[in-house]
Amino acid sequence: MKKNFLTVFTMILLVCTVLVSCKSQASKSDSKKVDEVATEAATKKPDATTAKADATDPDPDTPKTTFEFDKMEHDFGDIDEGDKVNTIFSFKNTGNEPLIISSAKGSCGCTVPKWPKEPIPPGGSGEIKVEFNSKNKPGKQTKTVTIHANTDPNPTRLTIKAQVAKDPNKPEKTAATSAPQIKTAN
User: Fold this and answer.
1) Architecture of the domain whose range is 67-165
2) Model confidence at 31, in pLDDT bands (50, 70, 90)?
């Protein structure tokens, strides 16, 4: 009877440890998300014209134009985990109105675009520089950059790809090393 009690107690302890560990990890990421949303909400001051629209959408009253890129996709090929690589997407305003890019956002924090903030006149050209940080991103990677501008259609998406070779010096994370170890006495 004492042995059964010890076994049941050990199993309950193991289950509790795993649940607390999982909840702790979720709490940290949830807490971070809540902090980010709270900060964003505190810094945004909606008005009557932007309350219903997404903040990244251009003003619907702005005249529409068109633009064309030299490429819509870039493949970095084989890179090593931890590499930071860059590419440039060149474009031309092919419409009759100034091109206003209101935002360019990466699909992940590892993908950071930089775009011209000033209007591009009709016939003018510009560039969107995209940096990809492959830290902790081993394997095949496909990321996008979503561009909101006074264009039709809107938004426009650019794609980057890479095959990231795992860092050979990085220790392998296995279930045996990441799960808590409990020893029982017989």
Assistant:
1) Sandwich (2.60)
2) very low
